[in-house]
């Protein structure tokens, strides 16, 4: 497989949504897509929901960021292992017990908070909730890869999934913030818990589209040993740090300006920009190489984040967050597409899980650092941190550009 995709704009008279509509002609696709959507809805709700709950209980963004970071770190550590287990034993056999454990652990976190238990109980239950969280997006993309193989349609499918992710990030933060500030600090996390349990169990029941398991003795090599995968993981670590820090700082920014309930809307604006750009990006056929597009979108992302520290009004922040969001979805789409080309098909779930791990560590670092910086210097000054992380992502991507070239002949099994 070459490193380029033929460049032609969407055909004359063809709507932007046309390539996406054709994906759903295959049997079983609608079932796993819908279930997967609801199962991973909490990925945009869990972090900010924990921040809002713990801050309401402790009056400390540092504590809130630390607990959210604990969840992210334990998820990041466990994600490759759960991905390998899925590749070895199948999606259904691993997903169901994991999501049930996650639901119990998250319930324990909320219960400890409500009972006023010692702070360490929040970290213990948070760690268990993170370790049992499933990278459901990786499982969904693995199903698409199994159904479509390495074809141009897979580019469209991965783009669709990134668009679905952005819909989640548009709706999730606004929903969890509204529930936590208007109903109860616990309400957002309760909705997240119900959604992930029901959605994941329903996803696991869609057995007809489930990828085959790895035969014993064929999974000794971890995808992280592939230089391109290691490089992408480093880039996504920095990108995740931007996500984690911007989430927390924006909550504080909105509160400092007397509009705490607007925090979710501001974060949704970023996701809206990403959704629209992803819809356009996925409907095109590209001549430029994926690795060239990847480093270009990283640069645009860093440029979009740069004004945040200079803005002192919620209304002014919104359009700049929209502009920054325009680079998010193309970056994620291209990153996952590169993983699909770099990693043998039999290890694809674990390979994609390494990106989730990198983002999880990044979100943890970003949440922790942003909480400390916000408490010490205020939200505007704290926005310098995500800018630095975005610039680091560009530097790593450019520096390791050669490692991102997919092999001409990719292993198929």
UniProtKB/TrEMBL annotation:
It is found in: Cell membrane. Residues 228-413 form the Major facilitator superfamily (MFS) profile domain. The chain crosses the membrane at residues 31-54, 60-82, 94-116, 186-205, 226-249, 261-282, 294-311, 317-339, 351-371, 383-404. It comes from the Bacteria. The keyword Glycosyltransferase does not apply. Keywords: Membrane, Transmembrane, Transmembrane helix. Gene3D superfamilies: MFS general substrate transporter like domains. Its main location: membrane. It is a multi-pass membrane protein. The keyword Membrane applies. This is MFS transporter. It comes from Streptosporangium jomthongense.
């Amino acid at each position: 497989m070459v490193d380029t995709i033929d460049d032609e704009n969407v055909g004359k008279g063809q709507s932007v949504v046309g390539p996406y509509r054709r994906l759903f002609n295959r049997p079983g696709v609608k079932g796993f897509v819908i279930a997967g959507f609801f199962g991973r809805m909490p990925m945009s709700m869990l972090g900010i929901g924990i921040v809002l709950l713990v801050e309401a209980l402790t009056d400390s963004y540092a504590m809130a960021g630390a607990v959210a970071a604990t969840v992210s770190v334990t998820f990041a550590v466990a994600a490759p292992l759960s991905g390998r287990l899925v590749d070895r034993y199948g999606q259904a056999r691993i997903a169901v017990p994991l999501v049930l454990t996650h639901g119990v652990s998250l319930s324990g976190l909320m219960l400890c908070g409500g009972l006023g238990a010692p702070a360490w109980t929040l970290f213990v239950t948070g760690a268990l909730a993170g370790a049992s969280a499933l990278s459901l997006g990786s499982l969904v993309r693995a199903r698409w890869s199994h159904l479509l193989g390495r074809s141009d349609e897979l580019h469209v499918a991965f783009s669709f999934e990134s668009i679905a992710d952005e819909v989640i990030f548009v709706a999730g933060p606004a929903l969890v913030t509204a529930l936590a500030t208007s109903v109860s600090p616990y309400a957002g996390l309760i909705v997240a818990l119900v959604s992930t349990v029901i959605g994941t169990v329903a996803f696991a029941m869609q057995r007809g589209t489930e990828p085959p398991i790895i035969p014993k003795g064929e999974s000794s090599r971890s995808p992280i040993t592939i230089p391109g995968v290691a490089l992408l993981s480093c880039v996504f670590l920095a990108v995740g740090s931007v996500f984690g820090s911007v989430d927390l700082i924006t909550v504080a920014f909105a509160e400092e300006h007397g509009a705490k309930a607007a925090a979710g809307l501001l974060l949704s604006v970023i996701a809206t920009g990403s959704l629209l750009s992803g819809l356009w990006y996925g409907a095109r056929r590209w001549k430029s190489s994926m690795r060239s597009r990847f480093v270009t979108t990283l640069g645009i992302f860093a440029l979009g984040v740069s004004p945040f520290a200079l803005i002192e009004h919620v209304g002014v922040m919104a359009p700049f967050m929209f502009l920054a969001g325009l680079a998010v979805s193309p970056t994620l789409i291209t990153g996952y597409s590169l993983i699909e080309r770099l990693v043998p098909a039999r290890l694809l779930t674990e390979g994609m899980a390494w990106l989730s791990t990198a983002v999880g560590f990044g979100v943890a670092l970003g949440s922790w650092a942003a909480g400390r910086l916000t408490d010490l210097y205020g939200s505007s000054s704290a926005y310098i941190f995500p800018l630095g992380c975005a610039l680091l992502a560009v530097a790593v991507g450019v520096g390791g550009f050669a490692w991102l070239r997919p092999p001409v002949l990719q292993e198929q099994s």
